[in-house]
Amino acid sequence: MENLAEYLNNGVETLVKQALRAAFKNPLETAFILRYMSASRRAAKRRLRAEKEGTHIPAFLIASIASQCNLSCAGCYARANKSVGESACASQLSDSDWTRIFSEAEELGISFVLLAGGEPLMRKEVLEAAAGFPDIVFPVFTNGTMLDDDMLKLFHKNRNLVPVLSLEGDRQQTDARRGRGVYTELVCAMEAMKAKGILFGASITVTRENLMSVTAPAYIRDLRELGCKIVLFVEYVPVADTPGTTAPDMSDRQTLQARQDRLRDRFDDMLFVAFPGDEEEAGGCLAAGRGFFHISPTGDAEPCPFSPFSDTSLKTCSIKDALKSPLFRKLELGGYLAGEHLGGCALFAREKEIREL
Fold first, then answer.
1. Per-residue pLDDT band at 341 (split at 50, 70, 90)
2. Edge-to-edge strands of the sheet including 271-275?
3. Which of 147, 271, 299, 345 could form a disulfide with 189 if both were Cys (CB 3.0 to 4.6 A apart)?
4. Pairwise CA distance, residues 44 & 266, whole Å
């Protein structure tokens, strides 16, 4: 997978350069990104060295560190997969487990560890542990309702922790899925972070219904005025009791890509990222260790957050061992990571087949 390794390394370098441009007027962020640029290049060399030795190390990792959440959003994949709730909370990874995992990630050359949940701000000790690994950037995907003064101080002090607030679009769209008043709380949180000079982003769930509105220049302009510098478009996966017709299809995905390209040209001081991104160029879905894999709150090594199947636990093995998961190998060799699919996950529609592997 040497070509894939080079593709991912080039992608990371492009991301860092775009982030540097987005943070140009923020001295603290600029200083951090310049230091991180050197670290990311060292990490890329470690990944390429491992590749030549026969071990593929992904550039990204998704870590769901919390099995609790203070919201009950419609269509939540974490609740649908039962990774959020009392049973999951009782067996979730400890703070020391996560510290070990972050240490292993740094040693292997993993450049980005995306922290999710549940609500990751409910695991402050884990966030503090992550802050101790400045060679890794930790985007923290939060619902934004728990950004109090202590959390703002944590993000201000530790620039490798990057808050990413979850949105569905405008006030009506966000409150409809996340609860009344959540949009107002998000706006207040963004204003507070802007005032403190904290680099932050927005994660926007893209459906057929909101595709045009959330990629409209006026909407992005409003986010920029609130201080948002990073926009992540995440294709909706219908994991719960919501009609499958709301998920983007291949045509919608092409529209999203085209509109995102125009936004990059128009807002050159912002960073735009799509997930899962250009799978055709990457040779298929990047899950199952090709570009990333997911660690559940209880330590299960899963192909991705939307495909909660596992034969390996990080409670008893290392990241390097988890990457050798027989399940991951079967998914790649069996062609499960290729082909057209509805929504943001190539594996979701093939749940029954994967369950039988």
1. low
2. 271-275, 230-235, 201-206, 161-167, 138-142, 112-116, 60-64, 294-295, 301-302
3. 147
4. 30
Query: How many domains would you assign to the chain?
Result: 1
Write the burial class of residue 150 (CB in 10 Å: 0-12 exposed, 13-18 middle, 19+ buried).
exposed
DSSP designation for 269: T
207 touches 236 (CB < 8 A)? yes
**Distance, CA of 37 to CA of 317 (rounded, Å):** 30
DSSP 93: P
Exposure string of 211-220, with b = 16+ CB inside 10 Å and e = fewer, is beebbeeebb
Instruction: Find the CATH number of the domain harbouring 158.
Output: 3.20.20.70
Q: Which of 274, 319, 307 is nearest to 105 (CA)?
A: 319
CA distances from 312 to 115, 119, 126 (A): 20, 24, 22
Range of the domain at 179: 2-355
Predicted confidence (pLDDT) per residue in 291-301, tens digit: 999 999 999 99
Average pLDDT estimate for 138-164: 97
CB-CB neighbours of 94 under 10 Å: 12
Global pTM value: 0.93
- Which secondary-structure segment (H or E) carries 161? strand 161-167
pLDDT higher than threshold 70 for residue 88: no
Predicted local distance difference test score (pLDDT) of residue 244:
44
Task: State yes or no: pLDDT of 352 exceeds 80.
Answer: no
